[in-house]
From TrEMBL:
This is RNA pyrophosphohydrolase. Its cofactor is Mn(2+); a divalent metal cation; Mg(2+). A motif (Nudix box) lies at residues 72-93. It comes from Aquitalea magnusonii. The gene is rppH. Residues 40-183 form the Nudix hydrolase domain.
Amino acid sequence: MCGGIAGKPPRQAHGKSCRNVQKFGQLDDLQVFFMLDRDGYRPNVGIILINGKNEVFWGKRVREHSWQFPQGGIKPGESPEAAMYRELLEEVGLLPQHVKIVGRTRDWLRYEVPSNWVRREWRGSYKGQKQIWFLLRLTGRDCDVCLRASSHPEFDGWRWNDYWAPVDAVIEFKRDVYIRALTELSRFLKGLENYDSFLQRMRQSARPAPVAEGLPDKQQDH
């Protein structure tokens, strides 16, 4: 069955039959070293996949409670666009005919990875990621998504989410890049509220409803 609703529990990666591709993300130390630039950043692509409601694909990392956008490294000699399509297949199971490129960031966006997140043998040489971000619109169906297209899946669940919601949900050291990427790419989406408006709406929705003067407060069920 195709179709989904934002905010519902994550869809699980059941035993759906789909393409099985070799995951590029399984790299040895030497491969990673030769992919770093002179400042210690690994070239990378990030993918913001949207549906017809401008909701974004939000993936749950395998056996973790953390969520993120699809992303992955760029091979030596590979263009950012080619890397994007490869990562899209490996992590989300989608082919080029399932999506349309809406836009991309003009320049690299960088984030540093805290040292306690870096493998010991990479410390001192690996600093973080530099990314080109792509905004894609899903032209296929929700059921075209296949989280088991790779032999090493990145996600085991996913959902559609409000465009700006990932900013507050992603791990802290990626937050600034998420804000910058979402902000830059939001110019391609007509009628989309900006981040400040989203925050204001979220704060207002979290406020308790006003109580009419002279009436007792409604008791809460616990």
